[in-house]
Design brief:
The chain has 346 residues and is α+β, with helices and mostly antiparallel strands. It has 11 helices and 4 strands; from the N terminus they run ββββααααααααααα.
Length: 346
């Protein structure tokens, strides 16, 4: 706030923390909102939030307190305070070990059905009053995608397997949609399929992984979840986008005798070489592309390991900007070399 003279006020409210070990309103703490008024030379105010103490062991849990709608003053860049409810149960150590094995949040388990309903409510919630028009336009443009994501149930149903299965299905649908749109765009502008795949398709399927990894890095004290998410998600994309279709096609053509359509598709040389039919894929520049990718991936993971041992932080700490630029240059190197190979320039 600017200055400490005169009467100024600002509103506050508690809100759910969107990250790991989020506290539940009504279960761990009582929702609170109000107005703080600073008179004269007052520079400090206390916000009291009731915390519910139960006899259950839980990890440290987090919720937010947000300041908004100032009057007679201006808010700085930080308007949200993260509040941590510390665990002080006697069985803390034992419970921590049990929960680390179960990998679950007790409150999420109890209120799973309520969370499922809340997912749809949050998907339809628009920006706050006073938000710029562009944020409202983006919200309504993204409502169909938000509602589609809200269909995915919370992880506490069926031990997380229901969430896992439906998430894979939606990843497959989204990947297929991005692939078709990118293929049509590449065809209209004259880009080869290989170039379209490593630029538009790869970028379109990897950006959500990047945002999810950022959320995991912010909500977790270590970088394990972030790195595991981005590598695991890309592995799933490859399995779904490449391995699964190839497997289905291989089984189909193993059981189906060759016909004229198959002979025309594979060409006379392959048809003569494999008269009994089969699923045939022209490797093209795939070997070169995969080799470059593996080399650059090893460099990336080696850099992460080096940062952890030398700097004490895999993603944060010192030289974060330089590291991000270096990783970005590796991606550009991969794309550039693959495109040059595709156009027979190297």
């Amino acid at each position: 706030m600017k200055g400490s003279k005169g009467s100024v006020s600002v509103k506050y409210t508690t809100e759910e923390y969107h990250g790991k070990n989020a506290a539940m309103a009504g279960k761990d703490y009582e929702s609170s909102e109000g107005t703080l008024t600073f008179k004269g030379t007052e520079t400090e105010k206390i916000i009291q939030v009731k915390i519910f103490d139960d006899e259950e062991f839980e990890k440290d849990e987090v919720f937010n307190v947000k300041l908004y709608d100032p009057e007679g003053c201006e808010l700085g860049g930080l308007t949200v305070c993260k509040v941590v409810i510390l665990n002080d149960d006697d069985v803390g150590k034992l419970g921590e070990e049990v929960l680390s094995l179960l990998n679950m949040n007790l409150d999420r388990y109890k209120l799973g059905s309520n969370n499922y309903k809340a997912q749809f409510t949050e998907a339809l919630e628009g920006p706050e009053v006073g938000s710029p028009m562009w944020s409202k336009i983006l919200h309504w443009l993204n409502v169909p995608w938000k509602l589609m994501a809200a269909i995915i149930p919370p992880t506490n149903f069926l031990g997380g397997w229901l969430c896992f299965g439906i998430s894979l299905m939606f990843i497959g649908v989204t990947t297929a949609l991005i692939g078709d749109i990118a293929s049509l765009f590449g065809c209209s502008v004259g880009l080869p399929n290989a170039v379209t795949a490593i630029t538009l398709v790869a970028l379109g399927t990897s950006l959500p992984d990047t945002f999810a990894s950022k959320t995991a890095a912010i909500g977790d004290p270590t970088a394990d979840s972030s790195i595991g998410n981005v590598t695991g998600s890309n592995s799933v994309n490859v399995f779904l986008g490449l391995g699964l279709p190839w497997t289905i096609a291989a089984i189909y053509w193993e059981l189906t005798p060759p016909d004229d359509v198959w002979r025309q598709r594979v060409g006379p040389e392959m048809a003569k070489l494999y008269p009994e039919g089969g699923f045939i894929v022209d490797a093209g520049d795939l070997t070169f592309s995969v080799t470059i990718f593996c080399i650059l991936a090893c460099i990336t993971l080696g850099t992460v390991v080096w940062r952890g041992k030398v700097l004490g932080a895999e993603l944060g700490g010192k030289y974060t900007t330089q590291t991000a630029l270096f990783f970005g240059s590796l991606w550009l190197t991969y794309v550039l070399l693959s495109i040059l190979k595709c156009y027979k320039l190297i």
